[in-house]
Amino acid sequence: QVQLVESGGGSVQAGGSLRLSCTLFGYTSCAYRMSWYRQAPGKEREFVSRIDDVGTSYYVDSVKGRFTISQDNAKNTLYLQMNSLKPEDTAMYYCKSDNCGYWGQGTQVTVSS
After folding, report:
1. End-to-end CA distance of the chain
2. SS3 for 31?
3. Dist CA 23 CA 5 (whole Å)
4. Looking at residue 1, what is its pLDDT?
5. What's phi and psi for 4, nearest 5 deg?
6. In this structure, is the dihedral angle defined by the CA atoms of residues 85, 99, 105 and 75, taken in order, positive or negative?
7. What is the DSSP letter of 43?
8. Closest Cα to residue 94, out of 19, 5, 29?
């Protein structure tokens, strides 16, 4: 059984920072190739960032230069450092194991102007 547990969400003002964490419990092979997605109210879930099994990272254009994805393989934990946050970043953020198809429960990020 695999479980993804996210944390680190919260409420910040525009320009602030948050760091999201996602820890995988279960098969460690599911910790390779992981992604972050987000879903704002009334909108579809969208891709934010992913990291592949050789550490290459990818970002949606709207977060490039502001968000950084990283991974601590020893802790089976995925991170998303979010800087210069904007109100349009407000959403529920989800991590996903691309290898195994599991999703976390989500953590809420709210950015006020």
Report:
1. 41
2. helix
3. 5
4. 86
5. -110, 125
6. negative
7. S
8. 5
Mean pLDDT, each 10-residue run in order, the chain (113 residues): 95 98 92 95 96 94 98 92 98 96 97 97
Residue recorded with tokens 């920072």: 17
Max Cα distance, the chain (Å)? 41
CA-based Rg of the chain, rounded to a whole angstrom? 13
The pLDDT value given to residue 14: 98
* Whether the Cβ atoms of residue 22 and residue 104 lie closer than 8 Å to each other: yes
Nearest to 45 by CA among 3, 4, 104: 104
Q: Give the position of tokens 């934990």.
A: 77
Total Cβ atoms within 10 A of residue 111: 20
**If you ran DSSP here, which 8-state letter would residue 55 be given?**
S
